[in-house]
């Protein structure tokens, strides 16, 4: 009798019960035995007219049951698991694989009334704010939801929807107003709400990855600029007299950049893409101070061309990282490169 032990997961307790069951079914399916744990398969009857064939089927039935039982037994060798099964009245003489499979799931997932109470309490009080991401919260909530139902609790859909809403509303106050309106109009169910939260979690995850990637680029480019400008050595700028990294050029906007880099978007906002969050503001500065001509700003070294940078606003950095990179510049009062 052979089976692929590599695909099986030893049962350790409630924490890996679901993974154990999935892996076990996959292995049983590969052996053509999955039906033996999903339904009760009776022993084939023997008819005198087809006795030889029927006896072969009976023999195969016994062999299949024995093989299915052997596969299940190979995954429940943990002493604690064996102890729990014994305490809950395991009938070791019962050779039905479905009996053993169902008995294991029911025994392990509902060890004690105290465990049931703990699961229900966490399910009803869980908050999104306790997790680092919405995705992590949803994974835990789904796990608790399944456990609550596995131990026999029946929760009304409206109660479940309300609990889920209360769990996330403080983490997403603006979205919560829309969700509440749809709930009042009976246009939101637990299933549709979970779909919305899943979409929001993916958006949150993609944004985080994008910002992390651009911060990595920023750090790399900063090191390159310091390298091109002879490291951390600073000298007085010939134009404004301020201390800047050696080798950097004074731009009309007041920033100091590596020669040959693209024009500053604050100096020439027409060249900035529409996705740049500060484009409208830059155009406003241009129109207010120069009558709308880029050329007129060329000789202007005033602070109007020194927009908020990461040294003054962390949200500004996030916005700039998200909506576009117009090259690197150095703020006179900041030691690091600034994307704008």
Descriptive account of the structure:
The chain has 12 helices and 6 strands. With 340 residues, the chain is mainly alpha-helical. A hairpin with a 5-residue loop joins β3 (249-250) and β4 (256-257).
Keywords:
single chain; 340 residues; mainly alpha; two-stranded antiparallel ribbon; two-stranded antiparallel sheet; 12 helices; 6 strands; elongated; disordered C terminus
Task: Give the strand tally.
Answer: 6
Q: How many helical elements?
A: 12
* SS-derived structural category: mainly alpha
Mean pLDDT: 76
Largest sheet: 2 strands, antiparallel
> Taking strands numbered 1, 2, ... along the chain, how are they ordered across the largest sheet?
1-2
Question: What's the arrangement of secondary structure elements?
Answer:
Blueprint: H1 17-30, H2 35-38, H3 51-73, H4 79-87, H5 97-109, H6 113-125, H7 134-150, H8 157-168, H9 173-184, H10 190-228, E1 234-236, E2 243-245, E3 249-250, E4 256-257, H11 279-290, H12 314-323, E5 328-330, E6 337-339
Antiparallel strand pairs: 1-2, 3-4, 5-6
Brief summary:
The protein is mostly helical and 340 residues long. Helices cover 52% and strands 5% of the residues.
